[in-house]
């Protein structure tokens, strides 16, 4: 079953939010989702423990030593496996990238975030050139103001375009629902529209984002690429 890894070496890029938005929408559609929380901060694990979510969604904390075995077991359960990575930790980053059928690189609409995402993209290029391991990947713009196109967002798009990097059409927009769900627990779909502003717009954004991901990575048996040792850069 498909494995999607959310990766950016810069903190605050929106990795966890993007993963949760996708997981919430897929599980609301009755698609099984296993989320692997590799971030020591454990935001997904904390969110999941607040209240029962849905029988279609589970969250499991993982680390460098357990991520590969846990991913293999999660794939056997079916559906989608979503891996949320920390902004640091090169070993777990390399392993999660190598396990992925597609890497999604969340980038907040600014050049600094784009540069953090570029470090992940450099690792993907290294896998390709040194190991002949090609892993599909896309940038997803996050925390985008739906009403205003900022100069910083233009700069991020220009930076990515200059490198020939594929950017998803649907961004993750800045919505109150995406913040509130971490406090309240449950799915975005469970939030009260009387308590959360513009909930319908958040749900529409989540739906369009999930549709694009499903088009990129359909839920079907995937031909696995040849396994290869993942090059790990020496620690700085």
UniProtKB/TrEMBL annotation:
Q: What is this protein called?
A: ParA family protein
Q: What is any Pfam family matched here?
A: VirC1
List residues traversing the bilayer: none
Q: Which organism is this protein's natural source?
A: Peteryoungia ipomoeae
């Amino acid at each position: 079953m498909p494995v999607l890894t959310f990766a950016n070496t810069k903190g605050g890029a929106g990795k966890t939010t993007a993963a949760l938005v996708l997981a919430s929408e897929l599980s609301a559609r009755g698609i099984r989702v296993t989320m692997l929380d590799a971030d020591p901060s454990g935001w997904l694990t904390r969110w999941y423990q607040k209240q029962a979510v849905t029988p279609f969604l589970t969250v499991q904390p993982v680390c460098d030593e357990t991520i590969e075995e846990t991913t293999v077991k999660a794939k056997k359960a079916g559906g989608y496996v979503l891996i949320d990575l920390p902004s640091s930790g090169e070993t777990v980053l390399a392993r999660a990238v190598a396990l992925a059928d597609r890497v999604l690189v969340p980038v907040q609409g600014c050049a600094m975030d784009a540069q953090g995402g570029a470090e992940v993209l450099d690792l993907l290029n290294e896998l390709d050139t040194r190991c002949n391991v090609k892993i599909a990947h896309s940038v997803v713009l996050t925390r985008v103001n739906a009403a205003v196109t900022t100069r910083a967002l233009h700069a991020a798009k220009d930076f990515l375009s200059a490198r020939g990097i594929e950017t998803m059409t649907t961004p993750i927009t800045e919505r109150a629902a995406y913040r509130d769900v971490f406090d309240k627990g449950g799915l975005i779909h469970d939030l009260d529209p009387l308590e959360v502003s513009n909930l319908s717009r958040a749900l529409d954004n989540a739906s369009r984002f999930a549709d694009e991901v499903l088009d990129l990575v359909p839920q079907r048996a995937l031909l696995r690429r040849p396994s290869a040792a993942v090059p790990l850069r020496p620690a700085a």
